[in-house]
Write a structure and sequence with these properties.
- This protein is 27% helix and 18% strand.
- It is α+β, with helices and mostly antiparallel strands and 221 residues long.
- A 5-stranded antiparallel beta sheet has the order 4-3-2-1-5.
- A hairpin with a 5-residue loop joins strand 1 and strand 2 (120-128).
Length: 221
């Protein structure tokens, strides 16, 4: 049986192989990065500024008009437009305004007339001023049962609000919720409202004319 002896190469042979591989890598790298460079004499030189430096004005475009500058408080303007649409005469706003000395206050008896439905009257125990959502809370007794109703003064269903009777002494509270107790409950105000309507009708029917006497309606002769 023959014995296989490994082939041995001298060390100089391995050095030559390594040098050859290095040379091949350098040639490949030089070919991939080959560059044609121009001589310095062929590169044009930039002109040198000898005169004074002039600043050129940059053309600028003005910003569009800001909506925020025209409308500082858009919510307040929107509420005012809605109030002007729902209350063109300003009578309801003036009736519940804090600057009006003859405005309605808590403790007054108010009569609210509706476009669809029966009118409701009662003692005003709360006035909630919330812009377009301003409302009043009225309390009355129907069949000996306490009833409270909220009404929005700018509601399209409200035809009119009248002050039937004012409180003799102005209340020292903003909300008269203590009137819900039996001790302070005012009770029914139907008699007061009936007298007010009767007096109002008598005043309207008893207007005298310059010719003398009262105005008579048409009837049988």
């Amino acid at each position: 049986m023959a014995i296989i002896t490994p082939t041995l190469r001298p060390l100089s042979c391995w050095k030559a192989l390594l040098q050859h591989s290095r040379y091949q890598k350098a040639v490949t790298r030089s070919l991939t990065t080959y560059h044609h460079s121009k001589p310095a004499s062929m590169i044009p030189l930039k002109p040198v500024m000898t005169g004074p430096h002039i600043n050129k004005k940059i053309k600028t475009i003005a910003p569009p008009p800001s909506v925020a500058a025209l409308h500082r408080e858009p919510i307040l303007e929107l509420v005012q437009d809605q109030i002007a649409l729902l209350d063109p005469t300003g009578a309801r706003t003036h009736l519940f305004s804090k600057t009006n000395p003859e405005a309605a206050h808590v403790g007054d008896i108010l009569l609210v007339r509706m476009k669809t439905g029966d009118p409701f009257s009662g003692v005003c125990i709360n006035i909630r001023r919330r812009g377009i959502d301003t409302g009043i809370l009225l309390r009355n007794q129907l069949t000996r049962v306490g009833v409270e109703m909220w009404y929005k003064i700018y509601s399209p269903n409200v035809e009119g609000i009248e002050v039937v009777q004012r409180k003799e002494k102005r209340a020292r509270r903003a909300r008269l919720t203590y009137m819900r107790k039996p001790k302070h409950d005012m009770g029914s105000v139907q008699n007061i409202v009936a007298n007010y309507i009767r007096t109002k009708g008598a005043i309207r029917g008893g207007v005298r004319h310059p010719g003398g006497g009262k105005k008579k309606g048409k009837g049988r002769r």
